[in-house]
Design goal:
Oligomer: single chain
Number of strands: 12
Number of helices: 14
CATH class of the largest domain: Alpha Beta
CATH topology of the largest domain: Rossmann fold
Strand content: 15-25%
Radius of gyration: 20 Å
CATH architecture of the largest domain: 3-Layer(aba) Sandwich
Strand order of the largest sheet: 1-2-9-6-5-3-4
Length: 354
């Protein structure tokens, strides 16, 4: 088992990475709390696969639990399902001394984290991510949120987990599409921070070969995010670099009502489009776009998504990295290095349209 520790003022927690850890979750959770109650939030895909194993582990550790299942998919990351969790928590008798456990991918982690952060003014929660995207990115760092009709992640807060338990074995049941979805975030980490990681991604022949090295990949992505979050928890400076590809990615998701493209697919296309803009602006080394397209294609992700200009403009107007008429765009200078580049929304829309 590999360990990483996130050190924030008064909120230190571990990220534990190891095969079969799902079966040790009960002892790990009881080891950090005297609570007797745990509310487990999962979804209709993950629950049937891993709910019983987690339930057995928690029960063996003497914990009383309630499993709450929401429909799989982005539509569950909503105010309606947030209220549903509140009602289920209260019916269970959840107190401020108890825990919420998120067993699932990014949607479940965000939704359960948001519920934990706000019920009873905050109860502790634990992340047990089951997708590659959640294991390498969204389960670490404390960003929790739900979507609004106006856009993605517009109602949320920063609320760090007490523990992150990552079992790479659960990735075996992911479809190729969902696995590729997570690879977009892995590619992002290589592109903005770690050229060696990026090069390794180009060298793997496919999913099977990559999975032989998966613990190393997850560890490196979590380590990068840990260091970034410690330096800038509230996304006011360097943490913005983690949004590479997301400005347009969120716009693509919203343009298709979160139904046609996954988050990773949209981010992959956003990274490529932004890098094309960076090369035109002279901020990105020539040839970076070609390398990025190569690795994106290698893992079955799209390098381009078509969206109506009005949809892009609408999403940019709500971008959380914006400041009035200025967007803080994340551009690569080369593979392994990124910058924050302020650009007017008007100019960005013109560049996107080219």
């Amino acid at each position: 088992m590999k360990f990483l520790t996130v050190n924030l003022p008064g909120r230190k927690y571990d990220i534990c990475i190891g095969r079969q850890l799902l079966h040790d979750a009960g002892s790990m959770i009881s080891g950090i709390s005297s609570s007797a109650k745990v509310a487990v939030v999962t979804d209709s895909n993950v629950g049937p696969l891993y709910g019983e194993a987690l339930k057995a582990s928690l029960t063996a550790a003497g914990l009383k639990l309630k499993v709450i299942t929401v429909p799989a998919g982005e539509s569950s990351k909503s105010i309606a399902y947030l209220e549903y969790l509140y009602d289920e928590f209260m019916e269970f008798g959840l107190s401020r001394q108890d825990f919420v456990v998120a067993l699932g991918g990014g949607v479940v982690g965000d939704l359960a984290g948001m519920a934990a952060a706000t019920i009873l003014r905050g109860v502790d929660f634990i992340q047990i991510p089951t997708t590659l995207l959640a294991q390498t990115d969204s389960s670490v760092g404390g960003k929790v949120a739900v979507n609004l009709k106006a856009g993605k992640n517009l109602a949320g807060t920063f609320y760090q987990p007490k523990l992150v338990i990552i079992d790479p074995d659960v990735l075996a049941t992911l479809s190729d599409k969902v696995f590729s979805d997570g690879m977009a975030e892995v590619i992002k980490y290589g592109a903005i921070y770690d050229e060696a990681l990026f090069d390794r991604l180009l060298a793997y022949e496919g999913r099977a070969e990559l999975m032989k090295d998966i613990e190393r990949i997850i560890y490196r992505c979590c380590d990068i995010k840990r260091l970034v979050v410690q330096a800038d928890e509230k996304d006011l400076g360097g943490r913005m670099l983690l949004n590479f590809g997301h400005t347009l990615g969120h716009a693509y998701e919203q343009a298709y009502n979160y139904e046609k493209y996954t988050h990773g697919e949209a981010v992959a296309a956003g990274m490529c489009k932004i890098t094309a803009i960076g090369e035109r602006l002279g901020k990105t080394q020539a040839g970076v776009l070609e390398s990025l397209r190569h690795v994106v294609n290698r893992y079955g992700l799209p390098e381009a998504i078509q969206a109506a200009p009005e949809h892009i403009a609408s999403a940019l107007g709500l971008d959380k990295k914006g400041d009035g008429e200025i967007i803080k765009l994340i551009l690569l200078t080369r593979i392994g290095e990124a910058i924050i580049y302020p650009i007017s929304k008007e100019q960005l829309l013109e560049e996107v349209a080219r």
